Amino acid sequence: MSIITDADARDREDMQKLIAGHDAALNDLMERHATPVFHFLCRLTGNEADASDLAQETFVRVFKSRASFRTDQKFSTWLFTIAANLGRNHFRWRARHPNISLETPLGDAGDATQTLGNTLPSAAPSPNEQSVAGERAEAVRQAVAALPEDLREAIVLCEWEERSVAEAAAILASTPKAVESRLYRARRMLREALQGFLTV
């Protein structure tokens, strides 16, 4: 049984308000969750412009689907399920349009910040950080982008977003055992791809 935190309680209250017709409650939800959703989608897609569009669409879906939210479920799990599904659909669309690169490096996040509002800080590293870690970061991005879709989703949720295996399974409509298997395979593939850069 999951533990209900104060943050979960606030999310639940805001969703109850949203369902009751208080549209402004969506702003409070976005203020708390826009940044993690955007960063999750950045890591999933490897492209800030795509992530910004998908993050906006995620909250559009939250609003449109508000009546289907169950107040006994964790909002962040429901939210990330929507985001993951949109990311999955985006990759399927991009697979049918292979002229668009999967390895677009993350640059200045200014456009994304302006689009989603002040809740999104710039994800661009400082010049010093770029010089020190740029090559390694690009290698990681390319390695993650090259993973099969199911492995990429699992590794991003559990390693970068620090979601538990159980929550990742709920988000991906899978089982904890299947997620653990995906994590094992993803880590093995990343170790092979990133030899000489880092240990995963």
Low-confidence residue ranges:
99-123
Residues in helices, as a percent range: 55-70%
Per DSSP E runs of 2 or more residues, the count of β-strands stands at 0
Shape: globular
The secondary structure category is: mainly alpha
Second CATH tier, the architecture of the largest domain: Orthogonal Bundle
Largest sheet, in brief, is: none
Radius of gyration, whole Å: 17 Å
Average predicted local confidence, pLDDT: 81
Q: CATH topology of the largest domain, anyone?
A: Rna Polymerase Sigma Factor, Chain: A
Provide the CATH top-level class of the largest domain.
Mainly Alpha
Instruction: Determine the N-to-C terminus distance.
Output: 30 Å
Task: Tell me what the structure shows.
The longest helix has 21 residues, at 25-45. The protein folds into 2 domains: 1-124, Orthogonal Bundle (Rna Polymerase Sigma Factor, Chain: A); 126-200, Winged helix-like DNA-binding domain superfamily/Winged helix DNA-binding domain (Arc Repressor Mutant, subunit A), CATH 1.10.10. The chain is built from 9 helices and no strands. The protein has helices at 6-19, 25-45, 48-64, 75-95, 110-116, 127-145, 149-160, 165-171, 176-193. The model is unreliable at 99-123 (pLDDT under 50). The chain has 200 residues and is mainly α.
